[in-house]
Amino acid sequence: MLRYVTAAVGILSFIGGASAQTPSAERGSYLVNTILTCGNCHTPKGPPAAIAGKDFSGGLRFDEPPFDVTAPNITPDRETGIGNWTRGQIKTLMRTGVRPDSVNIAPIMPTGFYEIMTEADLDAVVDYLVTLAPVKNKVPDPIYKMQAPRQVLPGAEKPMPQADMADPVKRGFYLVTIGHCMECHTPMDKGVRPFDAKLGAGGFDFHGPWGVSTSRNITSSKTKGIGAWTEDDLKRARNTIDFFKQTFGPGNFYLELQNHGIPEQAKVNRQLIPWAKEFGLKCVATNDVHYVQKDHSRAHDCLICIGTQSQLSDAKRMRYQQEQFFLRSAQEMKHLFTEVPEAVLNTVEVAEKCNLEIRYGKGAEHYPVFQPPETWTREGYLRKLLCDGLRLRYSIQAHVDGSTIVVEAVTHPERLVFLFPPP
User: Fold this and answer.
1) Which of 158, 197, 190 is nearest to 177 (CA)?
2) Per-residue pLDDT reduced to its tens digit, 168-215
3) Left, alpha or beta for 338 (phi > 0: left; psi -120 to 50: alpha)?
4) What is the pTM of this model?
5) What crossing angle do the helices spanning 87-96 and 119-129 adopt, rounded to 10°?
6) Sign (positive/negative) of CA torsion 217, 335, 69, 95?
7) Cβ–Cβ under 8 Å, residues 138 and 80
8) C-alpha closest to that of 111 among 124, 130, 98
9) How far apart are CA 385 and CA 391, in angstroms?
């Protein structure tokens, strides 16, 4: 199920488009564009990024067994958006998932996480979306194939009193809920999320052109979750980001994202992406290259064993994620970073800031040129050195015959036991 943290779906705004924002609308802008992530679903995408001028005019399609729906146009356009909806109808949809025509929308819209929203925040969301420019964009009508359950997070069944927001724990619960964190970080079991037994345990799969990403365990488990993380760790990371931002300037410091199929990298990326927005920085996608082609992975694994004097069968040896550290094409990088396509584009921006000129062609080689002893070719001398090494290290008597190394005898076969252990 291709899902980007679902947004404030069929919501907000109605007629018009005021130019100046009130304090309430500014709060709504913060909610809609950050924690509610409305644009992730409701803004049409390129490639490679969001289509300019089409914000909130309808976006992602979700074709699932219970329904086939496209995130609708939530701008104030009267014909294709929600410009004819009243404030009350918008708020009712957000709280209950019911449209003005009494149709229950697909639970891909996380309305079950919005019942806890304070009246002030709900009003702020509406106040912000009336300031948007109406965009005419008709999306396909929804198709409902069967009834899908709408779940409400336990403890979030009613609006949180404003006074409770002064309590850090209650405020944290509020933010985690309206950000629908547990929608992704709780596994699905027969179409239902077991909030009572596996809340935040991770294990929900996201399928996309990049392959499959699995949500992580964010419980307090010290071994499987984030229980071993400390507040000091996060503070040090934030202070480091701020230091480099002040040192180099926000236009010259980027937060690096990598994706080699390593769970820890995914965890770091999920923290860096929102921090980039908070600190006013850009992300840049990079790729660690240890070999050129994907099928060179096996040879690279053997090279690691040679360098660390270990065997392929050693379960505790140093190893890399298989078939991940090759030279990827631009298209492959775009597939890996579908959720942050601008991070791939920013690689060009970084390159254009560099003034290094690399010469290519004959006579401009950048590797050392080895000159063998007189009468030897480079290849022949390398073979001679190999024969010397076989004799000194493994007691293997060999000589060079043209382009072939011929083994004559093995003086001490017991030295080879560690290379070829008995079955």
Assistant:
1) 158
2) 899 999 999 999 999 999 998 888 899 999 999 998 887 765 567 788
3) alpha
4) 0.57
5) 120
6) positive
7) yes
8) 98
9) 10
